Amino acid sequence: MSAYSLSRLSYYTEELNRMRDDGLIVSLTDFWGLLVEFFVYRQENPARLSDQKKAVESGQNPLPIYAGVNTKTDLKTKEFAEWCEFTPYEAGFSKYGAFIRTEDFRSQFNKGCLIKRMAEPRISYLLGMWSSAFAASLDEIWNAGKKLEWLDNKEDDVELADDIKMSSETSSSDGLHTHVVTPSSPVSYLVDKLLNSRLSSCQSHNFLHGLNLHSKYHTSHEFITDTDTSPDTFPSKLTPSEPILNLVDSGLSINSAFPLVLRAAREVDLILSFDYSWGGHFDLTQQYCSERSIPFPPITLSEEDWKNPKECYIFTDAKNPKTPIVLHFPLINQFFRKFKAPGVPRVTPEEKDWGDFVVECADSPYSTTNFTYTEQQHSRLVELNQYNVLNNKDTLLQAL
After folding, report:
1. CA-to-CA distance for 204 and 120, rounded, in angstroms?
2. 20 or 179: whose pLDDT is higher?
3. Cystine design at 378: which of 7, 258, 373, 391 (Cβ 3.0–4.6 Å)?
4. 192 phi and psi angles, rounded to 5 deg
5. Which of 348, 352, 342 is nearest to 391 (CA)?
6. Hey, CA dihedral for 288, 293, 296, 300, is it positive or negative?
7. Burial status of residue 226 (CB atoms within 10 A of its CB: 0-12, 13-18, 19 or more)
8. Where are the alpha helices (DSSP H) in 43-161?
């Protein structure tokens, strides 16, 4: 069944209409979340993020931390991006020291008080936000080298924007902003936006709305106030003054969620990095940490490392014992090609054929834009990653 079959479009319409009727702000990213749901699950997935508490409450699994960044519609993510973390227990901003229960995300708050409780969104909608290429402006995609085929003809000026046109905006007696929404059918509207207009963020009621910043907020290392052009310099321009959050894929800021792991209260000693591209995320992470006085090891790579990366790298800062160690595992097929396990060579033609594949090539099945793998592609990828970790067990133990 196609993601765009009549029955699926009818399902999308019903879901988006229900959200709108419940008082939620419907965006193109919600439509994207429904598409991701179809690609991944092939059916409606009722699960919610808070359901994952059962999988971690006894320490049987690591705590999952998911990332998004809050942006401004008139600024690019490199100019303003506030990291928002999601776990099965809470969602919020370490920058402001403000978190809410995960169950209350997308509910309406004012001055820290719950005004209107909304049902916790299904995880499919969060997946849409956490992985939404729709959140980018085209020049960000071009600059990041992430041009997608379906964007080939979208070379006009593209920026983040409100997804539902507001016919008017007023303030109610309790000081809350009230939007009068006049959309057409959600699916027809969103498809039209997808094909003919600007790309979007996931818009949600802002649980920070109405909160006052401490008079000395600028002394916190989380705020960059050393220039007159930084949005952090002006309290009235910061997120608590906004009724709406504009959340996008955190990869549009830094394509690896180091900022969340480096939250001071976590006191991290060792970071295992399985990000599968060198890109510029290490440079961006170092810049992010430098601006906020967060300890992070220097990342030094030789020309040979760029041409022929190794299975594992260890980055440390001997001068600062508070700096976490970073073990980075690029996605490469180096020794797995010849060994089915560390020290166990491939012998039969079948074993050799299984290990003989290229991860990075023009027609790689592991491209970011490919949503589905065959059973063989999936098994190869899992075994390759398992081998690369086991083959560097001594380095990992050394770091520990």
Report:
1. 12
2. 20
3. 373
4. -60, -40
5. 342
6. positive
7. exposed
8. 53-56, 123-130, 138-143
The angle at the Cα of 68, spanning 242 to 234, to the nearest 5 degrees, equals: 35
Rounded to an integer, what distance in angstroms lies between the CA atom of residue 310 and that of residue 304?
A: 10
Q: At 112, is the pLDDT very low, low, confident or very high (cuts 50, 70, 90)?
A: very high
The dihedral over CA atoms of 72, 255, 64, 272, expressed in degrees to the nearest 10, equals -150
CA dihedral 375, 381, 382, 383 (to 10 degrees): 100
Q: What is the mean pLDDT of residues 31-41?
A: 87
**Beta-ladder partners of 272:** 327
Residue 272 CA to residue 297 CA, distance in Å, equals 13
Calpha distance 391→161 (Å, rounded): 47
Q: Are 364 and 358 in contact (CB under 8 A)?
A: yes
Distance, in Å, from the CA atom of 183 to the CA atom of 97, rounded to the nearest integer, reads 36
Give the CA angle between residues 113, 116, 122 to the nearest 5°: 115
Q: What is the pLDDT of residues 225-269, one digit of tens each?
A: 887 888 888 888 899 999 999 998 898 888 889 999 999 889 999
DSSP state string for 189-253? HHHHHHHHS----EEEE-TTTTPPPPTTGGGSTTS--SSTT-GGG-GGGSGGG-SEEEEEEGGGT
Q: Quick check: helix, strand or coil at residue 180?
A: strand
pTM recorded for the entire structure: 0.80
Strands 270-273 and 325-328: parallel
253 touches 83 (CB < 8 A): yes
Contact by Cβ (8 Å): 69, 50 = no
- Tokens representing 330 are 């690029």
Q: Are 88 and 56 in contact (CB under 8 A)?
A: yes
pLDDT band for 214, please (50, 70, 90 cuts). confident
